[in-house]
Amino acid sequence: MMFGMRLRGGLLAALIMLAAPVGATLVSVPAAAQTVASIAVEGNRRVEVETIRSYFKPGPGGHLGQAQIDDGLKALIETGLFQDVRINQVGGRLVVTVVENAVIGRIAFEGNKKVKDDQLSAEIQSKPRGTFSRPMVQSDAQRIAEIYRRSGRYDVRVTPEIIEQPNNRVDLIFTIAEGSKTGVKSIEFVGNVAYSSYRLKDVIKTRESNLLSFLGGNDVYDPDRVEADRDLIRRFYLKNGYADVQVVAALTEYDPDKKGFLVTFKIEEGQQYRVATVDFQTSIPTLDAASMRSYSRVSVGSVYNAEALEKSVEEMQIEASRRGYAFAIVRPRGDRNFEQHTVSIVFAIDEGPRTYIERINIRGNTRTRDYVIRREFDLSEGDAYNRALVDRAERRLKNLDFFKSVRIVTEPGSSTDRVILIVDLEEKSTGDFSVSGGYSTTDGALAEVSISERNFLGRGLYAKAAVTYGQYVRGGSLSFVDPYLFDYRVALGLDLFYREQLANSYIAYGTKTLGFSPRLGFTLREDLALQLRYSIYQQQISLPNSLANCNNNPGNGLLAFNPSPAYANLVGAPAGGSITAGGQTATDASGQGLWCYSDGEASLPVRKELQSGKVLTSAVGYTLNYNTLDNNKNPTDGLLIDWKQDFAGVGGDVSYIKSAVDVKYYSPLVADIVGLIHLQGGMLNQLGNNEIRMLDHFQMGPNLVRGFAPNGIGPRDLNPFGTRDALGGTKYWGASFELQMPFWFLPKEVGLKGSVYADAGGLFDYKGPTTWAQTAELTTTSNSGCTPSTINPNSAGTCTGLVYDNGNVVRSSVGVGLIWASPFGPLRFDYAVPLTKGQFDRVQQFKFGGGTTF
Hints:
Elements: H1 2-19, E1 24-26, E2 39-42, H2 49-53, H3 66-78, E3 82-90, E4 93-100, E5 103-110, H4 117-123, H5 134-150, E6 157-165, E7 169-177, E8 183-190, H6 197-203, H7 223-239, E9 246-255, E10 260-268, E11 274-282, H8 306-322, E12 328-337, E13 342-351, E14 356-363, H9 370-374, H10 387-400, E15 403-412, E16 418-427, E17 431-440, E18 444-456, E19 461-470, E20 473-482, E21 490-501, E22 510-525, E23 528-542, E24 578-581, E25 584-587, H11 604-612, E26 615-627, E27 638-648, E28 656-668, E29 674-686, E30 716-717, E31 731-742, E32 752-764, H12 774-777, E33 804-805, E34 811-822, E35 825-836, E36 846-853
Parallel strand pairs: 1-3, 2-4, 5-7, 8-10, 11-13, 14-16
Antiparallel strand pairs: 3-4, 6-7, 9-10, 12-13, 15-16, 17-18, 17-36, 18-19, 19-20, 20-21, 21-22, 22-23, 23-26, 24-25, 26-27, 27-28, 28-29, 29-31, 30-33, 31-32, 32-34, 34-35, 35-36
């Protein structure tokens, strides 16, 4: 019996020991005999005695009961300051014996190359001169591994090492084996019928790994990005009429053989719906529901579009608020006809709860000023709470591109009819220093160095300085934009620019332009914008003396610029004689040797511009822009219209009205083929009695009809012995139809697609100078022997006349193109064959252009 009782007593003691916290010993002490003052502390070095005693809170009467002792013991252990805590009763006193944790002397990281020490130090909880805790160190190792996993390195291994030092100190070393990036090796779609996998890869952000993936980061596996892609796919289908769509799952699997992830999106498309009817209802007696019809972007017979439905709700709710119904709520209801695959939409407008905004609290803006954020809201403290306006503000904040993340949530206010808006932000870098390089058949090789800041001084201002240097183009610019002039939603822009265009194989002369242009921008709607501008610039032509001296030097010969080699050795004809070259004969009708073109003279309008010197242009203008493109960089659907007009003559030396329109319409066709219709046209009209300069005319080439050289079409000086400069025209028109299609046999991530196109257009009606009084040109030293003569169309020309081609010929071409959205920037290659052209047009069948920023 005694043995059995002892055994049960031993089991009870063991259970008590197991129930005690790890690293602590607790002895039952009669509660009535203990007070805080009677607690003795042993083993402490850094922590004060009174600090340890403070964790033991006395109960009624100032005495410590067993419950108070247990709570104090747990609280001491939870501080993380001690390796071990023991409580014993010695001589009627409570003795707390502690073994303090070591102090961290230093923390170091070894093996990390992709992530800097500063970033790792900010993430871990262990700190130098802090208390060493093994559980905390293990947690820190997991945090470091998570940082690497977020950047796609799932093979990372983090090993913490502890080096003991004297005086109870330790050094903490995290040894990191970073491993290689874990990319996405394949992206598959299951269940998609209406849209190909190739098209859906355009919708999502995740990309497959390829040879050029090192230049980007979207091929790195990120579970958050994959989850966001599910929503992008769903919204894409909803926008295109698939109201029943479900993205059932996004399955990810790591393939050890490929050393990467395989991502599969499982989709249930359902049927495409069209809109059967659109009705409006309201429970507000004084509000006419039908008056909201003009704010609906949903029309009967159109494909159901959830995005258009959301925008309609937003605009209706905002309009109701403007009319004084601040608490009105617009709720769309869609009744589906599953047999006919139609949706009947009803916009129900009701009086919502009377809720007001008590405060708008902004958190996380360490650099951006509060007012920059608040001005994106169309409401403030004390206004009626309107969810549509809050959603619009969130969208505007995201579009600023100042923040990594933007999130607006509501919290209850001081009363039931009050809410607090919480704006959570995470700042990101908004400054850019870039070096851009490129090459085109027009401008040659060029480079640009620029520095810009989108959020200058945290005030939401934009500033940029750039310098360009190339084979044929040089210059610089300074730009500044204040998007909120005088706290109104009006953007003020200021541009100062200098551009020097050098003579090349397309033009015989160079130009220098120095100017300044302030502008005002107004956002009329999300798809409609207006810009007002004033431009003042000074322009001057430069020519080598050999192209403007109008002499009769037999030793000059024609310059290499002349397009026909037959004239390469042609020299001036004697007085009263004739000269024949290339099947053309020039006769000196005056008999005095007035061969102003015989040694390669530039055209009369060019030399007249040269004689005019620096010309000042002062003009006001505007641009109206309508944009419904689904993607500004790589559009597949939508309409873009630009209408521009400039009125010169507000001071300055020239006066004219210049108008231009440019229309692009994109439409998806079949099998990922996108159709593009491009229409353009322009007109230049004279104002007053001032003659229109040649430089103010439209100059066209491949920008109108591909297959022709820059300045290659339109009116041209016909003199066979001159430089045959393009004179430009006052009217132009152009039409183009293009099919853009992917290369299905190539991975989507390569970014290559092809195009076939047909272009047609015309440039005509030159209205620049055709004659020149003798006083300017004939008074120079080299022209002292010249006298005026009658213009003879059969002659090579004289000092005072111009013979030119001004026919309105339709130019047309067909061609193929290669479009590459490369990591080095957008590149395009075109090969076009002219079908119809003018007699003196210049052909350039191959054209290449592109560049990048790095």
